Each structure stands twice: as structure tokens, then as C-alpha cells.
Amino acid sequence: MMKQVNFNGTTLPAIGIGTWHMGDSPQTYTQEKATILYGLQHGATVIDTAEMYGEGNAEKLVGDVLQNFDRSKVFLISKFYPQNATKDKMKQALNRSLKRLKTDYLDLYLLHWRGPVPLAETVAGLVELQKAGKIRYWGVSNFDTADLKELYAQPQGDQVFANEDLYNLANRGIEYDLLPWQRRHQLPLIAYAPIDQGDSRGQKLTKNSTIQQIAQAHQVTPMQILLAWTIQAKDIMAIPQTSNVDHMKQNILVGGIDLSNQEMQQIDSQFSAPVFKQPLQMI
Questions:
Q1: Total domains in the fold of the chain
Q2: pLDDT tops 50 at residue 202
Q3: Which among 53, 137, 167, 192 is annotated as catalytic?
Q4: CA distance 119 to 86
Q5: CATH number at residue 141
Q6: Which of 2, 94, 104, 265 has the most crowded Cβ, counting Cβ within 10 A?
Q7: What is the pLDDT of residues 93-114, one digit of tens each?
Q8: Domain that holds residue 51
Q9: pTM
Q10: Is 179 within the bounds of a domain?
Q11: Is 152 marked active-site?
């Protein structure tokens, strides 16, 4: 049974579908399409994409998938470049994304990362798109605590729906101040790269003996334990990317894994939480 998260009154699956590096190759296109469709059919009904991914190729792939699934049952997320964060350029970027996605609205539209456009103008543009019915919600990505504080100081800035950041067992820096700040403001987190490809900065996460022992106890793979760790909190959604149906099946099954307090403590002893502020990690 897939875990659910409550994003400001909207109930969503704890595991969605990331699409970075997808849609670029004709050789893998059919397999990628089948993988995303399998995920949708089995409860992973959040798709995360961006105009940056393959300069629109990922959005085109998702658009093709959506022809075979009820659009109203999908929570569709896309992102726009910082250079498109002015009112006019944002509107144009959104229209291009919608055309590629073969839909007339997004559920969530995110500023991909901060750029030179003042946040006040970006927020005003997003609110206009929301009022026009082109997007249901808006949010941000790759924002640190200071960025969010600045955002909340803008008119209607506190209407932000979610922040999407890098978060996994090898990259826990946001736990020091960003995640607590978001929780105080009831701002949910979307975790990208939630299993860090199983390897980060020389740390072979899946080879760790504690991870392997816990995986064995649950009769799952070490990769599934890494993903399960990421979504143990009730306010975090993970969007792992895979182009493989078997991996998609494994990702979805993670929604039924509950790690005990003891297991979480064992993992903590191997991969400790931050004890000081760290720069926001991005990939």
C-alpha cells in the first residue's frame, strides 16, 4: 500500500516519478513510456518534469504517456528556467510546456532555481497564471532557508505550495535548518535524487553493511531501504527517476516499507545528521 503525504490539504502519494534524462533517445523511448505508465497505473500518480530536461524532450515523453492515462488522476509538475521568471517569459514558457505535455493546465509549476529576476515579479506572474486556471499551485526548487525567508516577505509569497530540493541519506544538510523552517511554516518538501544513484562522494550507500542488514530483514533491496528512509517523514515526497519497469515496481513497493525507530537509529549511526549549517547541495 502506497504511503500518502498531505501537502496543504492535498493528498498525494509519497513516491512520484522523476523524468530527468528521459525522452532523449529513440532507442529507449518505448521502454521509458511503458515505465512511467506502469508507475501511474500502480499509484505513483505524481510526475515531475521540467522545460530544462532535454530542452523539452522529457515533457514530450510525459505528454505521450498522458494520452494513455486519465489526466485528472495525475498530479503534474513542471519547472521553468530562472531566465523565464518574468511575467511575460513565464507565460510563454508555460504555454510551450503545456503544448509539449498535451494538457491545458499544470498541477504545480516551480521556479527551477533562483536567478536575476526579483522574487516579487516571479510570484506576481505565478499568481496570475493561477488565477487564469493555467496552474493549480506554484512553488520553488533549490531554495535554501534564506531564499524561503525572502520569498515569504513578498506579497503572496507565503502561498508557495512546496519546495523541491536534493535530499537523500548522503545529503542530509537540509535537516539542520531548512527542513525545520519548512515544517514550522507547513511547507512540504519534494525530494529529488532521493537515492542518490546509490552512491555519493565515494560513499557506497548500497554496500553499507547496516543498510544491507536492514534490507535483508525486510526482504527488499538496499536501494529500496535508501528510498524508504527518505519518505519516513509524513511531509516529504520523493521523486526517484527510473527508465526500467522492474525498478519502478521496486520503487512503488517502498510505499509499504515501515522502518522501525531502531532501524532509523542504526542508519543514523552510519550516516549522521548535520550538526552545523551546510551550503545547499544541488545537482
A1: 1
A2: no
A3: 53
A4: 9
A5: 3.20.20.100
A6: 94
A7: 999 999 999 999 999 999 999 9
A8: 4-204+231-257
A9: 0.96
A10: yes
A11: no
